């Protein structure tokens, strides 16, 4: 539940802020008639993102056990790669995002309303497709789809509410700190997916070391116990963890978070 909540909150707020920037610029430009094209692009992006989620789920359901493990492992690797790239991309472009979107909107005004819809679509679909892939991989790693779904819903509701309040200037959040903290949380969630992908490939013999277990909590607790659920939902580690899973997990977390924090500190120093 916690990992789904973090994904939905972070990715949902990113999308909400992008939409808020687009809407605010159009309103301040006294071109409210063009808002319907913004929303058309947004809803199309959401529909395609939901479509990707449906395709992934349908494809997984149609595969046999062996094929489903390959598919789950592969999509987990892809989700980790995409999320890692997006976390650093947002860190790099966050300060210029408003200016970049404003320039694209002005160009779209000159071209026509469908170009404006295209700007909104491209700005949102990137977040949507990433979220769909990440959510699907996270659900495959979850032992409790019900709780994961609840966390997803709560996260998206919180993101929409926060995005709306920020747009209305009803609240003020230090977005730099927010995205730094949630970025680290996403990296930890991604590490859990990476560990799960290694597990899937070990199960089918693509990777060695399936019998070399470093942690086995199965005799100590049931899969639905509070601690087991907390471990799975927070750091993504299951009851049984191989040495290879742990090594990949630790190397990824230490390497990526260290680089991420250095870039965050560099940004702060650059503004002093």
Describe what is shown at a glance.
The chain is mainly α. The protein has helices spanning 2-28, 35-62, 65-93, 97-111, 113-140, 145-167, 175-203, 226-234, 243-271; strands at residues 213-216, 240-242.
Structure explained in plain terms:
This protein has helices at 2-28, 35-62, 65-93, 97-111, 113-140, 145-167, 175-203, 226-234, 243-271; strands at residues 213-216, 240-242. Helix 2 runs antiparallel to helix 3 and helix 3 runs antiparallel to helix 7 (175-203). The protein has one domain (2-271). It is mainly α and 272 residues long. A two-stranded antiparallel ribbon has the order 1-2. The two termini are 39 Å apart.
Oligomeric form of this entry?
single chain
Biggest beta sheet summary: 2 strands, antiparallel
- Number of separate strands: 2
- What is the average of the pLDDT values? 85
- Weakly predicted, low-confidence segments: 268-272
Widest β-sheet, arrangement of strands = 1-2
**Cα-to-Cα separation, first versus last residue:** 39 Å
Total domain modules: 1
Strand content: under 5%
